[in-house]
């Protein structure tokens, strides 16, 4: 068990994101692990959430000729841009590397899978972007694009795409606590008790424990009926676990009938048309402001009108402006 999780990544994410010779979705990677088809340092691993430390991978690779990770007996090769295989470089090299990082903001539509090569031949966001020319250079070359995180099939909204494995991993690491903000339409009887449970965290569903999330009821429109059992909420989380918001509400007897991601870190969906991809500037995680421990006001603070100013600062985001061209 890894004690310090600062520089760790889940095994399932490592297989689906940092591998150069595999094209797996997160769900496919999890299935292979549960079926006992993945070995780590010669031992079979069956838990997808197993944390792998980058330092251990590097030291193992240096001392052993046998690959650290294998899938069905075949070695897993890491991307050259991955933090696992990359070495430290000078500040000049870092600057040049940052200039080469490309990022796109995509408005994912409901019904699309994010991963390529879907075994069920469902519409794929990544394949659609490649067909439309996203990632092609002026010289006709083609960048290897990676999604930053995932959205499940019914979920809409902001997806970030990049050509850099390091940036993708940094954006996803739970230890960086980047804010993921959603609009969620919830069906069922929503009570103050249930909202408090979500804000306190610790809800479990299918043996997965979820941390606290910030949740607020959106101001209802005049057209909404007072007796309506559908409520629009604004939900903020920092973990990015698979189906996190849907599972938390389901554990409380509520159903998320529509889910739209509107922000990830400092990147915002704004008015990007559905299905459109827009190139946007790269912004290092260290410079992004929409991150850190979520500020969730207590009942005491509500009554007195006082706020925790230090925590409240982490809620202020500096949005990344678009580039006007559209692909």
Automatic annotation (TrEMBL):
Q: Which GO terms describe its biological process?
A: pseudouridine synthesis; rRNA processing
The name of this protein is: Pseudouridine synthase
Q: Which Gene3D superfamilies match?
A: Pseudouridine synthase (3.30.2350.10), RNA-binding S4 domain (3.10.290.10)
Q: Which organism is it from?
A: Fragilariopsis cylindrus CCMP1102
Record GO terms (molecular function): pseudouridine synthase activity; RNA binding
UniProt cross-references to PANTHER family, sorted A to Z: PSEUDOURIDINE SYNTHASE FAMILY PROTEIN-RELATED (PTHR47683), RIBOSOMAL LARGE SUBUNIT PSEUDOURIDINE SYNTHASE B (PTHR47683:SF3)
Q: Where is the signal peptide?
A: none
Regarding protein family, the annotation reads: Belongs to the pseudouridine synthase RsuA family.
Q: Which UniProt keywords apply?
A: Isomerase, RNA-binding
SUPFAM superfamilies the UniProt entry points to: Alpha-L RNA-binding motif, Pseudouridine synthase
The RNA-binding S4 domain extends over 9-74
Q: Where is this region: Disordered?
A: 296-327
């Amino acid at each position: 068990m890894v004690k310090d999780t600062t520089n760790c990544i889940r095994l399932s994410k490592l297989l689906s994101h940092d591998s150069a010779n595999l094209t797996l979705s997160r769900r496919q990677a999890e299935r292979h692990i549960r079926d006992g088809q993945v070995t780590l340092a010669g031992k079979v691993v069956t838990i997808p959430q197993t944390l792998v430390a980058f330092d251990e991978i590097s030291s193992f690779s240096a001392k052993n000729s046998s690959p650290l990770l294998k899938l069905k007996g075949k070695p897993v090769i890491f991307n050259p841009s991955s933090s696992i295989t990359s070495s430290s470089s000078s500040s000049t090299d870092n600057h040049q590397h940052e200039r080469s990082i490309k990022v796109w903001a995509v408005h994912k539509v409901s019904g699309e899978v994010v991963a390529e090569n879907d075994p069920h031949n469902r519409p794929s966001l990544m394949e659609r972007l490649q067909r439309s020319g996203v990632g092609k250079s002026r010289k006709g070359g083609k960048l290897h694009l990676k999604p930053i995180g995932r959205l499940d099939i019914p979920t809409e909204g902001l997806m970030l795409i990049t050509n850099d494995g390091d940036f993708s991993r940094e954006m996803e690491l739970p230890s960086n606590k980047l804010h993921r903000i959603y609009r969620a339409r919830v069906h069922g009887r929503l009570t103050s008790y249930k909202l408090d449970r979500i804000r306190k965290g610790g809800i479990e569903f299918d043996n997965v424990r979820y941390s606290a999330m910030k949740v607020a009821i959106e101001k209802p429109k005049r057209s909404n009926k007072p007796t309506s059992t559908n409520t629009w909420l604004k939900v903020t989380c920092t973990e990015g676990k698979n189906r996190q918001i849907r599972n938390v509400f389901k554990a409380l007897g509520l159903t998320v009938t529509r889910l739209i991601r509107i922000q990830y870190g400092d990147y915002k969906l704004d008015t990007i048309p559905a299905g459109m991809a827009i190139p946007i500037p790269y912004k290092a995680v260290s410079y992004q402001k929409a991150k850190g421990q979520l500020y969730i006001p207590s009942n005491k603070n509500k009554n007195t009108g006082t706020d925790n100013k230090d925590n409240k600062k982490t809620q202020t985001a500096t949005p990344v402006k678009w580039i006007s061209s559209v692909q």
